Amino acid sequence: MAKKQEILQSVPLVAIDLGSHSVRAMAAEMTDDGLLRVLGVETSSKYECVERGIVTKTSDAGYMINEVLKKLSNRVHVEALPSAFVCVGGRTMQVVAVHSTRDQVRKREIAQSLLDSMEAECKHKIEARYKNVVVLDLIPYFYKLDGVEQDEAPRADQRAELVEAHFIAFVGKEELEQKVVHSFNQSGKRLENMYVRPDALMNALAEVEDMRDGCAILDLGAQTTTLTIYKGNQYLFNKVVPMGGYDITRDIEQIGISLAYAEQLKCKYGVASADLVTTDHRFRIPAPTMPQGEVAVMATELANIISARLDQMIMPLMDILNKEADRFKVLYVTGGGAMLNGIIEYLQSKTTIPVMYGSHASFLSSDTDDEMCMPGYSSLIGTLLLGNIYRQSHPVQAKDDNLPILEILKQMTLDLFTEQQTTQNPSTNQKPSEIDKMENNH
After folding, report:
1. What pLDDT shows up at residue 139?
2. HEC-encoded secondary structure of 379-411
3. Based on CB atoms within 10 Å of each CB, which residue in 56, 329, 340, 388 is the most buried?
4. Closest by Cα among 336, 362, 359, 335 to 36
């Protein structure tokens, strides 16, 4: 038993990012210094099966999860990678505050079963109130023992009569979670745990004082742009705009070039604002459908196309942030779109809050490739950090000494999905305004 458990526990930490155009997987291990050593990254781009953060074709997503984990196991030289952690995000995700109170009648020890039941109650409160909505993640905010507030979860040796647990819940439409679960089910791989993207980014980018004094993270994705605001060690706000870098690429495509050339032009020569163009170069791009076989565009014209879409994506979020700019110390920028030339200067022109790139480099070992420090990897790093915490508190237990390792993993996968399917709410017709109502109430 001990030997089999040790084998299972020695499997590297694996995080998966379900992107709009590809599935990426990263494997890592924890060093003795408590840092992540990234062992490798692999990508599968066979299908496009994610739209604005939601899986659209679970069979295609399952195929790519299986494929990318096979490729990654070859890269990191292990026989198999049987499981992975994943973080989710999407246009329907919001944050809601919720709490639970228990009167133990007299001062008693605070059992873990009590805390678990309070957490379950909070989850039920939200899912009972909002139809077709699921709690994606429930994050402790603070606890109160007999009226005395504390940040850490109560210890087993503490005693109290009145216990309060306050949580911040990330919620979204059921399909956001269900389709990820179904994708893993079809891949034949085990979903170890699921996290929300804002929490993964917070763990990778924010310092302790940032959470205390106030900070925001702007996540510039391919199909979504997300602003998350933190203050006083809690999540105050999360807003998703269903537009991202892919929309900018499509705008550039409209000048008469292919989508592939539009992406290259954006990444290599695109600038966030025409004011930031130092030399107004003239670019000639192949365009077989045009009379001359090419399209000419000036650097300032390209910048104007980009800034027009950026304004549409960013300004609603900046308006929200700027209403209480004096409450926040820094705005971190991350995601693939953070690599756009001039993005920091562009954002700084829209707010008085200091703007800087978010960095997860302090969590990486010195022998990790420098490329892993790029903003596009922040969500994967954050997911690995959360996954490491999860494994420490949820050691893998083999259920039968006589079963081979692969059979144990198959049984664990079956149990996981059976449990999740039996606890999901029955599907009902949901009015489109339910999530909007939730945001307004919050």
Report:
1. 85
2. HHHHHHHHHHHHHHHCCCCCCCCCCCHHHHHHH
3. 340
4. 362
Between the alpha carbon of residue 114 and those of residues 137, 158, 166, 389, the distances in Å are 19, 13, 14, 21
Query: What is the C-alpha end-to-end distance of the chain, expressed in Å?
Result: 48
- The percentage of residues in the chain with a pLDDT greater than 70, rounded to a whole number, is 86
Task: Give the CA diameter of the chain.
Answer: 86
Q: At what angle do helices 299-322 and 259-269 cross, to 10 degrees?
A: 70
pLDDT 10s digits, 220-272: 998 889 999 988 777 888 888 889 999 999 999 999 999 999 999 999 999 99
What does the pLDDT average to over 416-425? 40
CB atoms within 10 A of CB 43: 16
Conformational region of residue 335, where left means phi above 0, alpha means psi within -120 to 50, and beta covers everything else: left
- What average pLDDT score do residues 129-144 get? 86
Alpha helices in 290-401 (DSSP H): 299-322, 343-348, 378-393
Task: Pick the closest to residue 438 from 56, 232, 132 (CA basis).
Answer: 132
Going by the DSSP 8-state scheme, the letter that residue 312 receives in this structure is H
Hey, which bits of 8-158 come out as E strands?
13-18, 23-30, 36-44, 50-51, 54-55, 83-88, 94-109, 133-145, 148-150
Cα dihedral 298/301/303/306 (nearest 10)? -130
C-alpha 90: how far from chain center: 9
Token pair of 83, please? 């499981």
Query: Which residues fall within 8 angstroms of residue 358, CB to CB, at 6 or more apart?
Result: 201, 204, 205, 217, 332, 333, 334, 338, 375, 378
CA distances from 276 to 7, 91, 282 (A): 54, 31, 16
With a cut of 90, say whether residue 363 has pLDDT above it. Answer: yes
Question: What single DSSP character describes residue 20?
Answer: S
> What SS3 class is residue 205?
helix
How many other CB atoms are there within 10 angstroms of residue 78's CB atom? 15
Task: Give 231's Cβ-side CA count (13 Å radius).
Answer: 14
pLDDT digits (tens, 9 = 90+) for 82-104: 999 998 887 777 888 899 999 99
Q: What is the DSSP letter of 153?
A: P
Q: Write down the pTM of the prediction.
A: 0.77
Q: Could you read off the pLDDT of 145-174 as tens digits, one per residue?
A: 999 988 678 888 899 999 999 998 888 888
Beta-ladder partners of 195: 87
